[in-house]
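User: two proteins, same treatment. go.

Assistant:
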Amino acid sequence: MVAPSVILIAIFVYWLIAQNVATSMTDIHTAAQATGVEPHRFVGLDNYIALLGSEAFQHSLKNLLLYTVVFLGGTLLFGFLWSWLLDRPVPGQAIFRSVLLAPMAVSFIAAGVVWRWLLNSNQGERASGLNRLFQMTGLDFLQNNWWNNINWGISAIAMVAVWQLSGYVMAMFLAGFRGVPEELREAGRVDGASQWQLYRYVIFPQLTPVALSAVIVIGHMSLKAFDLIMSISKASNYQTKVPAIDMFVFKGVYDYANAAAVGTILLVIVAILIVPYLIHVNRAENR
C-alpha cells in the first residue's frame, strides 16, 4: 500500500532534485545548449563559485536575509501580541479576529497590486498612496521611496507580507493559548501567582512548540518569496531582487545551469532551517 507513494515521491521529488543538481553542474547557458542544438559539458561547482562570488547574487542573498528578518520578526511580534490580547475576554473579539485574518484570504498577487500603489515612491506634488497620506496629515518627514530604496527597499515589501500573514501566526498562537489546560492556570493562581507571573512561568513556556512551528512555516515562506515581490516590483529591478527572482530571470534567458544552481542553493538554505526542526521533533517523539 505504501509502495505507490514511495515510487511517486522518489520520481517527482528526489529524482527531479537530482536532475536539478546535475543541470547546475553543466554549462547550459544558452538556448542552443538548452534545446540540444549545441553540446554541453560538466563543469562541477563552477556555477556555484561564480554565483556566490557575484556582487549581484550577493545582493540577492542580502535582500533575502533582510526580507526574512523583517517578515519573520514582524509576523511573530504582531501575531503573538494580538493572540495574547485575544486570550482574555475582549469586547468585539470575533470582529477583531475576523479583521486580522481577512488579509489571508487575499492572494499575494492581488495584495501586491494594491500595495504597489500604496508604496509609490513619488513625493511632493506627484505623491500618491502612503506618501500622499503623510503629506496631507503633516507628516512629510515620513515620506520615502519605499521599495525603490536600493539598500532597504525589500523591507518595504516584507512589511506587506507581515500585514498579510500576521493573522495566520495569531491564529497559531491563539490555538496554543487555548490549548493550555485550565488546571495549570488554576494551579498557578492557587500558588499565588499574579496574572503576569501566570503568563510568564506557566503559559508562555507551553507556547514554545507553537513558536517553533511558526518560525519554520514563516521562515520557509520567506525563503521562497516570489509572487509578492513580482507584483509590487519587477524582475529587472535590482533593488528588490532575491534568489527566486534570479532563478526566474536565468530561466527566461535559457540559462538553465545558473537557474538550477540558484534552486539548489535555495534548497540547501531551506534544509538548514527544516532539518534541525525535524530532528528536534523526532527526538521529542522518541522520549
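Protein 2:
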Amino acid sequence: MTTLMAKPDERTAAAARAAAALKVPGRPGRLGRFEPLLVGTAAVVVFMVAWQLVSASGVRPELFLPGPLAVAQGMVAAFQDSTIWVDLATSGEELGIGFGLAIVLGLPIGILMGWYRRISYALEPFVSFFYAMPRIALIPLLIIWFGIGIYSKVAVVFLGAFFPILINTSAGIRSLDGSLLRAARSFGASDAQIFLTVALPGSVPFILTGLRLGLGHALIGVVVGELVAAQHGIGLRMSIAGSTYQTAMVFAYLTMISATGVVLSLVIQRLERRFDAWRPRN
C-alpha cells in the first residue's frame, strides 16, 4: 500500500535502483573484457599439455602423433632452410590472387542476384550446379589448362572461395527487412539511394560471413592444388614430408597454414565489429 501511494518520482527512483541491483551480478568485472581471451588461452594450454602427455606416454608412436615440442622443433628446422620463403611467397601469391578475384567477382554478382530477381532466376541453376561440383576433381583439368605453375592453383583457390562469397552476399540482400525498404521508398528514396543506405549496410554481416567461409575454402584450395602438382609451395613441402614419413614436419606446415587462416579470420572479425554500427536499425 505504501508503494502504491508513493509519488511517481519516488516509484521511478525505486524501479531504477531495483533494475541496477538486478544488473550487478551480471556486470563484468575488470577482467570481464578479457574473459574470452583468458578462457581461450587456457583451453589451448590444456589441450597442448594433454597432447604432449599423450605423445610422451608412448600410447602412440611419435611417427603417428608427434608432440607439440617435436612440431615446434620441426617448424624451427623449416625456417632454417632459406627456400621456405620462396614456398611461403608462392602459396601467399596463390591465395592473394585467387581470393582477391573471388571477392572482386563474387560480391557484385551476389549483389545483382540478390537485388534483381530475374538475374537470380537466370544464374541460380549455374551457381547450384558448380557449387555442388567437387572442385578438387577439376584439378587435373585445371593443370591441363593452366599448367603446373601458380595459375592452376589460383583457379582452384578462386573456385573454392567464389561461391561462398556469392551465395552469402545474395542471401544478405534478400534477407533485408521489408519495413526498412518501404520506409525508404515512402520518403521518396531512389533505388540507388536505397541500395547504398539500406541494402548494402544491411547485408554486411552476410558478406563478411561469406568472406570467412571463402577464406577457409581458399586455404584448402592452396594446399590441395600444391599437393597434386606444384613447383613451389607449402603444400608441396607437406607432400614431400609426408612421403618421407616426417610427421612432425607435416604438422609444422599445417600449423603455418592454420595460423595464416586464424590471423586473416581475426582481421575479418575486426571488420565485422567495425561495420556492425553501420547496419540500419529498426
